[in-house]
Every structure is written in structure tokens, then in C-alpha cells.
Sequence to fold (127 residues):
Amino acid sequence: MLKAWMLGCSLAVLAAGTAMADGNAANGEKVFKRCQACHVANADQNRVGPSLHGLFGRKAGTKEGFNYSEAMKKKGEEGLTWDEETLAKYLEDPKAYIPGNKMAFPGLKKEDEREDVIAYLKEATAK
Fold:
């Protein structure tokens, strides 16, 4: 009985960990249009915000040629690296996740929109 319970818990944890992979990239591309005034996903071009090209695996505040806030640079120095989990938390409420950052966007409150944008960014930022 204990083994069955532990297996169930393990499967629940695995399912939760892969939930981000279930985002819809096509929908995410539509949602990302809100971000395009400040960010480019598939080119090494900074705008009002840094280029997101090569985002996954990059430490926060380290995109060359962009003038980050001290708060964002400090998070990178502390080891914050962009992945599905950290990006989901940031996109939900950027000011709460990294107080003092310069991004004016209030965040994506709907979990499905965050998942979709992340799915899109995983594809677009790798190109």
C-alpha cells in the first residue's frame, strides 16, 4: 500500500514538473504580441527590453549590450537562470518576483497564457 502511495506521489510530482511542456506555441506566439514592443524572441537585437534570443539557460541580467536594472543583475549574480519554472514565476508578476526590475509589463495572470508563451519562447528563442 505504501509503495502504491509513493508511486502516486511520484507521478503527481512528475506531472506537475512537465506541465509547462504542455503549452501551445501557436497560442503563445499570439500572446507574445503584447511583448513585441519591447522584446525580440528570434534575433539578437535589444529594444526597450533585452533580446530573448538564447534566453533558456542564460543567467538573469547578462544579455550583452543591454542596460539591466541593478535588481536584475543581482539576481543573475545570485544564480537565477532562465528556465520554464523561473520564467513562469517572473511572467506571472515581474515586479513581485524581482522587485526593482525595469519591466513595466504587469505580467500574465492566466496560467495557460504563461504556459503558451513559454512554449513559444522555447521554440522561437532557440532559432
Q: What stands out?
A: Helices lie at 2-17, 25-32, 70-77, 84-92, 94-97, 111-124. Residues 2-17 form the longest helix (16 residues).
